[in-house]
Design a protein that fits this description.
Elements: H1 29-51, E1 54-57, E2 65-68, E3 76-79, E4 83-86, E5 89-92, E6 129-130, E7 154-165, E8 188-199, H2 200-203, H3 213-228, E9 234-238, E10 263-269, E11 279-283, E12 290-297, E13 300-303, E14 319-323, H4 325-330, E15 337-343, E16 348-351, E17 368-372, E18 389-390, E19 393-395, E20 401-405, E21 408-412, E22 423-429, E23 434-435, E24 456-465, E25 468-471, E26 475-476, H5 488-507
Parallel strand pairs: 1-26
Antiparallel strand pairs: 1-4, 2-3, 3-6, 4-5, 7-8, 7-24, 9-21, 10-11, 10-22, 11-19, 12-13, 12-17, 13-16, 14-15, 14-17, 15-16, 18-19, 20-21, 22-23, 24-25
Pfam family, one: DUF6519
Biased composition (Acidic residues): 102-124
Biased composition (Basic and acidic residues): 136-150
């Protein structure tokens, strides 16, 4: 998640069941976050063990899909409300009801607009989501790749993942009583669900038109395993950089990591694909340095703030990603832009290019700039140095150590397949002069799969023809059952007690 963290310490393989606070000790964000992660892991593991890989409650199972043929080749899907669990993660497809506004009437009951025509009644809000207006997918009818497949049959799947949300994207998270000069407080993690089509060709079925429910289910399981399997690995280390003796800092002379502060480096894949196609970006602040956008005018961007200090601000030469809610949810990377000019009094920056037309134009999607800390060198790269940028991001180079800064280096394993958004977190500490990364007995760094994004999939429907769908969901019933009837002796004892009570009541004198 893109948040201002010290580090993430949750490790399921260590089997910790709780975080225990000790008196007189420093309280860290990592401890509180680990406790939350432990409880979430336990709850979701239990739900998955009881429910299975996916399923919904029989009385309110959500995500029932109905195909709706549209005019001008714009087909649609009706997504009925209810709850559904995928790998223990709760997804709710219930569409919220709109609020009720106060009637604008004068105190005596008159409307105050007697001479004017009554305003038209608002349209009845839809009761369900559809493929085109589902809350976290942001499908665009103008993009052919977003349309439902013309060739049938095809499968409708539910994709589930999580992402972080800060006050830059949801201003309601900020406590205004703290004042604008104070930073925001805690971030949030949001469950994102998306109903998306999977073409039958991707499932590799021999006879898609005549496939049974079981055959479609098995083919989808194989497809989902391949789609979620990690395709790349990375290792990190801290090596003593060249000219380290000339760097004036307070770190001990033999330190490998020479940074002046503790950092949480984030290495994130920008554009996916093979090593020849993939690029990456990195941040020393876990990608948490963001700047909400108030207005966009060509290449000039007016910001709500330029940062609280010189460590968390924007400067000429910084590379930024123009982000909004739809951009984050779609996961389709666009070129990073360079800050060319900073107007401090006007809280404006001029970028090296105009942002893409589909990003940042709708204020309700909360656009903001995210700063990344890699730079493009103007000198010819020396041996071992990072390559020049491609669309603002660094090229992936496999099989060699690539320096980031201050002695921190990363290594991409050969033959990787990279997905946009996959990332690794690397804590760097001045106290040890190194990075926290697992090593083997010989103290060599171990290769690790990405820490995220972790996507989860479940099949919903198999659309075979016009107005014909095969429901692929699973349902489960409640565990509670009626209490068993008492045995014969217990029933006899109850009858005897009732008879004695009646006898006493009959024998009691009348008042």
């Amino acid at each position: 998640m893109h948040a201002d963290l010290s580090r993430l310490t949750f490790r399921p393989d260590r089997r910790y069941s709780a975080v225990v606070a000790q008196q007189g000790r420093v309280q860290l964000d990592a401890d509180a976050n680990e406790q939350t992660a432990i409880q979430l892991h336990q709850a979701r593991t239990l739900a998955a063990d009881l429910i299975g890989q996916h399923g919904g409650p029989s009385g309110d199972a959500g995500f029932h899909i109905r195909f709706k043929g549209g005019s001008r080749d714009l087909d649609d899907l009706i997504i009925e409300g209810g709850r559904y669990y995928v790998d223990g993660i709760l997804c709710d497809a219930t569409r919220p009801l709109p609020g009720v506004a106060v009637d604008d009437e004068t105190p005596d009951g008159a409307s105050g607009q007697e001479d004017e025509a009554d305003p038209p009644e608002p349209d009845e809000p839809p009761a369900t989501w559809t493929y085109w207006d589902q809350p976290d997918a942001y499908r665009d009818p103008e993009r052919p790749g977003d349309r439902l497949p013309e060739q049938r049959p095809f499968l409708v799947a539910l994709k589930v993942w999580e992402r972080s949300v800060t006050a830059a994207e949801d201003p309601a998270l900020r406590e205004v009583a703290l004042g604008s000069a104070m930073p925001d407080t805690a971030a949030r993690v949001k469950v994102v669900w998306q109903v998306l089509p999977v073409e039958s060709a991707a499932l590799e079925l021999e006879n898609p038109g005549g496939a049974s429910k079981e055959q479609v289910g098995k083919a989808f399981e194989a497809w989902a395993r391949q789609a979620t399997a990690p395709g790349s690995r990375l290792a990190a280390r801290a090596e003593r950089p060249e000219h380290a003796d000339q760097d004036p800092c307070l770190v001990r002379p033999d330190a490998r990591y020479r940074g002046p502060e503790n950092q949480l480096y984030r290495v994130e894949v920008h554009e996916g694909g093979s090593a020849k196609e993939a690029t990456f970006k990195w941040s020393r602040e876990n990608g948490s340095v963001v700047f909400p956008v108030d207005e966009l005018d060509g290449t000039w961007v007016e910001l709500a703030s330029l940062g609280s200090d010189d460590k968390l601000d924007l400067g000429v030469g910084d590379l930024v990603e123009f982000v909004d809610t739809a951009y984050t949810s779609r996961g389709e990377p666009l070129p990073l832009l360079r800050v060319e000019e900073v107007d401090l009094p006007g809280r404006r920056v001029r970028l090296s290019g105009e942002p893409e037309p589909g990003v940042g134009r709708r204020p309700e999607l909360r656009p903001f700039l995210r700063r990344w800390d890699h730079r493009e060198t103007t000198r010819r790269p020396r041996k071992g140095a990072a390559a020049r940028l491609r669309r603002g991001a660094l090229k992936v180079e496999e099989g060699r150590w690539l320096p980031l800064e201050d002695g921190v280096e990363v290594y991409f394993a050969p033959d990787g397949v990279y997905r946009s958004g996959d990332h690794w977190l690397i804590p760097a500490r001045t106290a040890t002069g190194g990075v926290e990364w697992p090593v083997n007995a010989a103290r060599k760094p171990l290769l690790r799969a990405p820490a995220g994004i972790q996507a989860h999939y479940a099949p919903l429907a198999w659309v075979t023809a016009e107005q014909a769908e095969l429901d692929l969901r699973m349902v489960f019933g409640p565990l509670a059952v009626p209490a068993p009837a008492a045995d014969a002796s217990a029933l006899a004892a109850e009858a005897e007690a009732a008879a004695e009570t009646r006898a006493r009541e009959d024998a009691a004198p009348e008042a």
